[in-house]
Every structure is written in structure tokens, then in C-alpha cells.
Design goal:
Length: 192
């Protein structure tokens, strides 16, 4: 069994999937999505991976047909399933988009390995004058339905975000946050 990491994802520590081929990444995502290629979340992740892969093709002229195909697939996923997941997102391994509809992910977002994102989630910027500020999610972050994570905030590994929470500040590893604005809740202590 793999030991849990105690580090968080930061701008200085980007997600690196260069060690895997496109097909290895897609196969791993397919397994994470319960081997169901029809799931909109799996399709969105696969298209995002394809978008990243095609940017490695040189020269640019050779890349052009792949870029046209990527743009078609990206718009299809966005317009039909309501999942806006651009190729510029730093997407970790085995990320699960559990449901479809109203999922908006800022292009500068960092999402760590094994995260779960549900319907109605927004990972975006907070202010118009800071358009490149985007959330950074650590590993195994569980984002509840309808949650909004806004601005340059960092969520540590194993963080849980409750449904419809609005996260406006950093959350440390292993914490659970709920509410508007999101506040940390303490786990109930067990009585012996």
C-alpha cells in the first residue's frame, strides 16, 4: 500500500505526468472512472490529456490538425456535458469528475492526484483584476457538489470540501470545510 504524502501542491511543485504516455494516462483514468468510457467525466479528462499531449508535437504545422480536433472535442464536452476543463489545467493522475453539468475549472488551476470533483463545482478566480489567480488542490481532495473554490487558495492533501461551500482561503491538510464562506469543522470526538 502506498504511503500518504504530507506535502501540498504549490506553484513551485507542479503536477508532472511526463513519465506516462497519453495511452497510459487515459487507461489509468478509465480504471479510476470504473472502466466506463461513456462517463462524461472520463471523456472530459481524456480530452484534456489529449490537449496536453498535442502541444508536444513539433513543428507547429504538424500540430495544427490535432489542435483543430482538440478544439472540436473540448467544445463538445463543454457544450454537451457542461464540463469546462481546458488543457492548460495541471491535472494530476486518476482525477475523477464524478458527474456532469456546470463544472468550471480555471485554466491555471492545479489539481493533485486522486481528487474527486462533483457537479456544479467552480474552481476559478475571485477578482477581475487578478485573472490568473486560481486554486491549487493537493492530493486526494474531495470537492462536494456545488462547491466554489475561488482565487489563489491552496488546499492541502486529503481535504474535504462540503457541498455548496465557498472556499476563499487556504485549508490545511486533512481538514474538512463547509459553509459560506467555508469554515473548518472539527471532527466529533469519540466517547469511550
Amino acid at each position: 500500500m502506498e504511503a500518504k504524502s504530507t506535502t501540498t501542491v504549490t506553484p513551485e511543485q507542479p503536477v508532472d505526468n511526463n513519465s506516462q504516455s497519453l495511452w497510459e494516462q487515459i487507461k489509468e483514468d478509465w480504471i479510476a472512472h470504473k472502466k466506463d468510457w461513456t462517463k462524461p467525466g472520463f471523456q472530459a479528462v481524456a480530452v484534456q490529456r489529449f490537449g496536453v499531449w498535442r502541444m508536444k508535437i513539433e513543428p507547429k504545422l504538424l500540430r495544427a490538425p490535432f489542435s483543430i480536433f482538440y478544439r472540436f472535442l473540448y467544445r463538445y464536452i463543454r457544450n454537451i456535458y457542461g464540463i469546462d476543463l481546458p488543457y492548460t489545467v495541471q491535472l494530476g493522475r486518476r482525477v475523477i469528475i464524478e458527474h456532469q453539468s456546470c463544472i468550471i475549472i480555471h485554466g491555471d488551476t492545479v489539481i493533485g492526484d486522486d481528487c474527486i470533483i462533483r457537479q456544479g463545482v467552480t474552481l476559478g478566480n475571485r477578482y477581475l483584476d487578478t485573472p490568473f489567480d486560481a486554486p491549487k488542490l493537493g492530493k486526494r481532495v474531495n470537492v462536494g457538489a456545488g462547491a466554489k473554490i475561488l482565487g489563489n487558495v491552496t488546499l492541502g492533501d486529503d481535504v474535504n470540501i462540503g457541498a455548496n461551500a465557498v472556499v476563499l482561503s487556504d485549508i490545511e491538510r486533512g481538514q474538512t470545510a463547509v459553509g459560506i464562506p467555508a469554515k473548518i469543522i472539527k471532527p466529533k470526538s469519540t466517547v469511550n
